[in-house]
Amino acid sequence: MIFCSSKPPKTGGFVSKNIMDFTVRTLSPQESRVVLALAEQKRREVGRPEIVQLLGGSAKAADKVIESLRRKGWLERASWGEYLVIPPDQGPAALGESNLLALASRIADPYYIGYGSAAEHYGLTTQHRRLIVLVTPTRLRGRQVGEGRVRIVNPKPGKFFGFAPVDVLGYKVMMSDREKTAIDCIDRPVLTGGVGEAASILAAASRRFDWPKAADYLERIDSIALVRRFGWVMDHAKADMPAVVRERLLDLAARGPRTWMGSNPAHKVPGAIGYDKTWRLFVNVSGEDLHESAGLGRGRALKKDG
Predict the structure, then answer these.
(1) Residues 171 and 279 in one domain
(2) Can you count the helices (H) and strands (E) in the chain?
(3) Which residues touch 282 (CB under 8 Å, ≥6 apart)?
(4) Other C-beta atoms lying within 10 Å of the C-beta of residue 168
(5) Cα gap 256→259, rounded to integer Å
(6) What value, to the nearest 5°, has the Cα angle with vertex 127 and ends 125 and 130?
(7) pLDDT per residue over 128-187, tens digit each?
(8) Where in the sequence is the domain holding 166, given as residue range(s)?
(9) 3-state class of 197 per DSSP?
(10) HSE-up (13 A, CA, CB side) for residue 128
(11) Closest to 118 in 3D by CA, of 106, 107, 134
(12) pTM for this structure?
């Protein structure tokens, strides 16, 4: 049998690398065969047919082994007949908050994890969310994944870009990059935790922005209202936006009618900041709600996301 823990051994003394002091997960010979083979191959995913072949028995017998490994925390179902492998050195904790993203990523293709979920991954927010936002052109219903809930967002075709694979505890997950994450959040604050939180995320992200990329994204999305919100928050956060980028955005913002940030100004929010002439934007959000993002963009901007 294999003994394994989800926590590292204490320092000092002699400890076998597979025997640890905490939560013990015992495996039968058949279960050990599967776990050891997958660990040796450094696999992070496996299909039912592979396990059947590995065990060399009936599919029914393999299903019993799979069910037992799921119950003991070695496998997690990703989709029908497909499983995520929890490495022996990580244990059940490996399928905690971060790898709920890996499970969610099996729901649709193409897709990306975005909005508040991506912001949390990049450390742009301190809010803890059980909601995973999955962006995909595929029409699907939201669903429960592990202990989290997946919300499906169907974007306009012109907004489905700006994402790439990232490593989440060994699993490759498609996620919006830092610039697209921040822009998405200020575009649809409801998927982020509200306008105040979206502004804080954008302000924090700006400290490590690739500014030309951000400007390209805004121009590609082609939304005057979004450009104005972005520009206003950058001024509010005192971000180090290069002059050439600022002029480029101001030129885009000069077109079209007045717009707003927050709720419709037909119903003015108490303590609302009001109209900003520079960005031609009515900020229908109270100063208190935007307090945390004020000056948050101060810092050295990076040419490339490191």
Answers:
(1) no
(2) 10, 12
(3) 258, 259, 260, 261, 265, 274, 275, 276
(4) 17
(5) 9
(6) 125
(7) 778 999 999 999 998 887 678 999 999 999 999 999 999 887 778 999 999 999 999 999
(8) 107-176
(9) helix
(10) 2
(11) 134
(12) 0.73
